[in-house]
Structures are given as C-alpha cells and as structure tokens.
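Regression report. Comparing outputs from two consecutive submissions.

Submission 1:
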Amino acid sequence: MNISNSLTLLRILLVPVVVIFLIQGYYFNALVVFSFCGITDALDGFLARILTQQTTLGAYLDPLADKTLIITCFLTLSILGHIPGWLAVIVVSRDAIILGGVLTLMIVEISCEIQPAFISKVTTTLQIFTIFFALVSQCIPGDFERTWLTYLYWLTALFTIISGLNYISMGIKFINKEPS
C-alpha cells in the first residue's frame, strides 16, 4: 500500500461522511470534506506519477473513488431537492450504462482497455463543479444567484450525455472489431 492508494482509500471512506453531513444539513462541513476529497484526488495522481508508484490497484480504485463520490453526492443532493432529479438520473444512468457495457465486453470475452476521452474528463470536471457550487449555494445565506447554476446543470447534462454516447460508440467499435 503506497501513499497514493492510501489517499484514494481515504476518499472512499469519506464518501459516507459527506452524505451524513448533507443529510444532517451541515452543508459547510459537506463542502469542506468534498473539497478535501477533490484535493486528495489531484494529490494522489500527482504523487503516483512523481514517485513512480502507479499501481494496478490504484488504476481501479481511483475511478471507483471518483464515481462513488460523484454518484452519492448527486443522488443525495437530488433527494434533498438541491439539484434537479433529472440531472441526477442522467449522471447515474451514464455511469450505469458504461459499467453495463464493460461487463458485457467482459462476459463475451472481448478484451479492451478503455482510456477516458477528453470529453469524459470535461464531463467529470463539470459534475464536480456542479456538486461544489450546489453546496456553495447552500452555504451562502440569503438569496443566492441560481440562474448561472441552472446553466451549469444544463451544461453538465449535455456533456454527460455526449460522453455517454462516446462510450457507447467505443463499445460498439470494440464489439465490431472482434472476430466472430
């Protein structure tokens, strides 16, 4: 177990903490822990590269930690009415479709190595910003300007859909390349 993998495991362990703070209405605390998770995400990747400690375990744990945090935050914030339910459905559905596609490829024994496309990195960034600013909007007293937050929701939805379609297209290409 190296430093990078330890930070990733810490992020996974902090997901329930964020959810508990959200459920209890401690939005500032949730924002702090969520931000800490973001910092450790950047830090674990940086440390893995500079210390040459990239591992197979880390390659699986890092996206698992990211998706666990993003999905639980979207679901919880949606249930609490702080982000639109339709957006949470789009985000969760995309990841379920991707997971289903990967499992299908494994079942039919098609080997593939899926590298995240640029659009997927933009999508993840937008999803993180959406959660971050939804939390910020709960921390600021008074009438927080929500118009731009609505634009962020739609932009996040658009990129999430495009990214999902990109993954579906890649999966179809993997299937069509495999000899019968």
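Submission 2:
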Amino acid sequence: MDTTADGRTPVEKFKHISLFEAFKNDDTALGAVAALFTTSKFTAGSFVMREGEPGDTMYIIKTGTVEIVKKTMQGDPYTVAQLSSDKDMFFGELALIDDESRSAGVVCTTDCEFYVLARSKFLELGDAHPSIGLAVTRELARSVSARLRKANADIITLFDALVGEVAESGGLGE
C-alpha cells in the first residue's frame, strides 16, 4: 500500500490537508479524493514548476521539502516560503480553478514525492460528487480570499512606506 515517510496512507495524510477539512472524518469521501491523485518524484534542486509557465495540477507534498520562489522586477529569484511534508502542505491549487500561468516557481530542496491532482480530475470529482467538489472549492475560495486580503494589506504597507520615504527626502520636487 502507498504510504508517506511517516507511514500514513493517502487517506490518513489527506485528513490533515486543509482543503479537505469539511470531510476529514469521512474516509469514503477522502478515498474518492485520494483515488484521483497520481504520484510524482523530483530530485533535490529540480523545479516542480516555474513562474509564468502554464499549469493544470496541484501538488500535496508526500515527502520532502520545497521552496516557493518568485522573481523580482529585475528577474532575481527570492524565496517566499519553505514547505515540507511534515506540515501537510500543498501548492499549485490555483491551477484547479483557472487557466492562468503559474504565479510562482517551486524548487525541491530535498528529494521529493508528491500527490498530484490534475484539473480535469478535480472537475470530474465535482461532477461525480458535487458535495465533495463544493467543499473543496469553498476551501480554495477561503485560501485565495485570505491571500488577497494579505496582499491588499501588504500593498497599503508598501504605499505608506513609499509615501514616508518621499516625504523624508523632501518630496517629489517640482
């Protein structure tokens, strides 16, 4: 049977993934979800996805650690976050709901294995099990909403800092 590094089955692992919170105690529902995932392995140093590339898959970290990487305006990479399997983390979930390019890159800092869900399988889940699909979609919406609220707060913070810097330097000059 397929298990994680700590011996958990996919259903046991998925009980701890926030996207599946609404039915975490329903092994039948989690089993239906787990059946849609494939697995994929990547070696340390390899990119799972690159910022700007098209994508249609979401990943749950089965084993290993990754870094979420963004590029500056000058094209220099910087690490936004580090995610690991022991924290029951996932990424790429926006690809389940839109056709946009990847908003960040993901690079493996260790050898990794992932549970992978394609958008087409997610849509099939919603058709076959509407209540499960709706529950996952609601969690996706909550996640996106929280990120949007944080981004808005960050923009205000940056704007305030910029205004302060301009004021301290004597203004814009005329």
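Expected: both submissions complete independently.
Actual: both completed, but the second showed a warning that disappeared on reload.
Relevant detail on submission 2: DSSP finds four helices and eight strands in the chain.
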